[in-house]
Amino acid sequence: MVLRTSSERLPGWRSALRNSFLFVCAGTLLAAPASAEIGRVKSTIGIATVERGADKLPATTGQQLMPGDWLETGKDGRMSVTFADNTRFAVGPDSRIELTKFEYDPTTEQGAFVAKVERGSIAAVSGRITKTRCGGQTGAPTCGMQIETPDSVLDVRGTRFIITVPK
Amino acid sequence: MRPKATAICAALLLAGCAHSSVVLLPDEDGGHGEIGIRQAQGAGAETVLNQADSRATISGSYPSIRPLGAKGLKPSEAALLAALPPPAKSFTLYFREGTTQIEPESAGTLEQIRAEVASRPGAEVQVTGHTDTVGSDADNDVLSRRRADEILNWLASNGFARAMMTAVGRGERQLKQPTADNVSNGVNRRVEVIVR
Fold first, then answer.
1. Which listed site, A132, B12, B46, B189, has its alpha carbon 20 to 30 Å from B168?
2. Which of B8, B25, B29, B35 to mutate to test the interface with A (most CBs of A within 10 A)?
3. What are the C-alpha distances in Å from B108 to residues A24, A50, B104, B112, B193?
4. pLDDT digits (tens, 9 = 90+) for B91-137
5. Residues B27-31: what's their mean pLDDT?
6. Which residues sit opposite B102 in a β-bridge?
7. Residue of B9, B20, B193 best to disrupt the A interface, most CBs of A under 10 A
């Protein structure tokens, strides 16, 4: 019945507010604020970049990812990424991967994820999004998880896998 | 020209990198899913890769599927697998009725969450508050959000950046133990924390 009021901890609130304000400022310099975050970079080795529109940003741990981003690695480059539905990627060297589409409702755990492996390799563990009920239409283009390669379309139904696309 | 081209093809085949391939692996918890493979163009038939530890090599119209066998993964593939981020971890904290105070037995869980966040580079923390069915829906929406905020604030006071954390309240919409309305239930009065 009794809620603790936040007034007894005002000093903490104040400094926390200041901190979050600083973070928001730093964030707007790096990222377009309009679209929603879909995942984050967890690790990078060697040359690893995130391409967003005309911008090429060096990938950094904790970096937010947006729909339409390209993940690119150099000859000795690597990066790992997690997504909002718990999908996980490890991107191998000499790769170009597009995060074409990612729409996910965390409450219903339904959505659609389309990624494109133009070249290179990924290891992946699929997340909640592959549990999306697609109304019997498995393989429908806007439901569950699809990975496109230059010559094929892969419909991922809940699993761990590795895709390699040579140059 | 021609012999040279043949030699390059042979080299590529030997290197095992001439064609795209998909390897289906067992899940971390033992089972496995499946992958449907179609050609990029046209509405061709789907080939289903549904045996764990098998490889589909994609060349021509139909993929050919073979077990990985004794050779197993290529070294580059094994390295990639090892580079995957760890799976997300979930925690549940329980609350005293009508308050944002955690039950004493959840104190240890709070400490585990702190340690987990600290151990993960680039961590994200998703905090979701819930209530039991005592009280109105509107009050419970507010209370569940305040429970989530309480945990988020505690983590922030332990030095974690607010930019890595989100808090939402779901009121009494997602009961862990379904009950009638106006039933006090300690299992439903909770905050779920996902560390990714």
1. A132
2. B35
3. 32, 39, 8, 6, 14
4. 999 999 999 999 999 999 999 999 999 999 999 999 999 999 999 99
5. 88
6. B95
7. B20
Phi-psi region of B66 (alpha: psi -120 to 50; beta: other; left: phi over 0): beta
How many CB atoms lie under 10 A from the CB of residue A164?
27
Q: What is the mean pLDDT of residues B148-154?
A: 97
Closest of A122, A123, A120, A101 to residue A112, by C-alpha: A101
Whole-structure pTM value: 0.80
- B-chain residues near A125 (CB < 8 A): 27-28, 84, 87
Q: And the tokens for B196?
A: 């990714």
Q: Please write the tens of the pLDDT for every residue from A26-38.
A: 433 343 344 588 9
Q: Which of A44-53, B33-42, B127-136, B180-189 has the lowest mean pLDDT?
A: B33-42
Structure tokens, A2: 């009794």
Average pLDDT, rounded, for chain B = 90
Q: In what order do the strands lie in the sheet with B190-195?
A: B89-94, B190-195, B125-129, B165-169
CA distance B30 to B103: 35
